[in-house]
Fold this sequence. Notes:
single chain; 2 domains; Flagellar biosynthetic protein FliP
Amino acid sequence: MIRFIVFFAAMMAAPELAVAQQLPTDLLNIPVDGSVAAWIIRTFGLLTVLSVAPGILIMVTSFPRFVIAFSILRTGMGLSSTPSNMILLSLALFMTFYVMSPTFDQAWQSGVQPLLSNQINEQEAVQRIAEPFRTFMAANTRDKDLALFVDLARERGQTVQTGAQIDYRVLIPAFMISEIRRGFEIGFLIVLPFLVIDLIVATITMAMGMMMLPPTSISLPFKILFFVLIDGWNLLVGSLVRSFS
């Protein structure tokens, strides 16, 4: 966790991301003999990157698949607020750290450490840090989704680089819709057994003439018991982790 925080801070100090040539401490100092307009632009760029950086990290990691699967699980069981949003988001976040740890380690060793040792400049460090994420996204993106955004870019007259060095403007949205699709696929498999339990309970209650009794109030304990007996959290988390290339 500490390594990830330091790695994140190093990315924020890079000029490609912060639109600056100095360290953040220098960016916050008003220049004496320089241009005030340039200082304002650099400071605005730094604050903008700091505000959108968490969203950028979520877009290029395994977080969407985890949070979608966990949310559909809660809805399928009929639990509106249990587990709470904080628990689900925390579990998804730490599972993301677990899945992405090889990518983070590679980015740290190839980009952040040489930058902190003054072996490479900031521009090269940004390229080295971003390369492991490109590899991860390319390995978990459907070819159909990737081809869609490549075709859309070419229809707009844009030149898109494909192959091993595919552009991020094409790779990131393709990766996101691939992750959302896989999250819904896994969610369908999660909800299916709970739907069967609801149908069985509804059929039994109607056959017994209990029209005014909501079937969900009876099926809820059975769904919870079923999920506990099959060790559902172990199966779900294990399947999600194994689903990544």
